[in-house]
Amino acid sequence: MGLMASLQIPTNRLDLFIRSVEISSYLPGRIRLHSKNLVGNPNLEQEIKANLSPMDGIDSVETSTVTGSILIKYTPEQLRRNNELRKVEEYIITHARRK
Asked: The domain spanning residue 89 has which CATH number?
C-alpha cells in the first residue's frame, strides 16, 4: 500500500469530489450523495452531470438543486473494471451512512 493510499489523500478530481459530499446511502448499483454546495446552484448541477454521466459503468445521474441530492445508478461489474472507479466505490462502501 502506497503512502497516498494509507493517508487516504484524494489523488484525482473524482476522489476529491466524493470526499467533498456526504455519502448518504450505498447499495451495489446505487449511491445517494448530498452536497450543500449543490443547493440553489444549477451551474454545479450541470458540472456534476457533465463529469459523471460519460463514465463507463454509470447508467444515470439524477440531481436536485432543491435538496442537494445526487443519485448515481451504475452497473457494478462494468464500473469495477476501471481501477480508479473501483477504489472510489470501495471508499463509498466504507463511508456510507446507510448500506
From this structure: 3.30.70
Residue for grid cell 476522489? 15
Residue 79 parent element (H or E): helix 76-79
Q: Cα(44)–Cα(50) distance, rounded to whole angstroms?
A: 10
Three cell numbers at 53?
454521466
With a cut of 70, list the residues of the chain below it in pLDDT.
1-12, 99
For residue 15, give the nearest of 92, 93, 98, 99 by alpha carbon: 92
What's the one-letter identity of residue 73? K
43-49: Cβ within 8 A, 24+ apart: 48/17
Count of domains in the chain?
Answer: 1
For residue range 10-33, what is the model confidence (pLDDT) as tens digits? 556 777 788 789 999 999 999 999
**Cell numbers at residue 21, please?**
459530499
Residue 3 lies in a domain: no
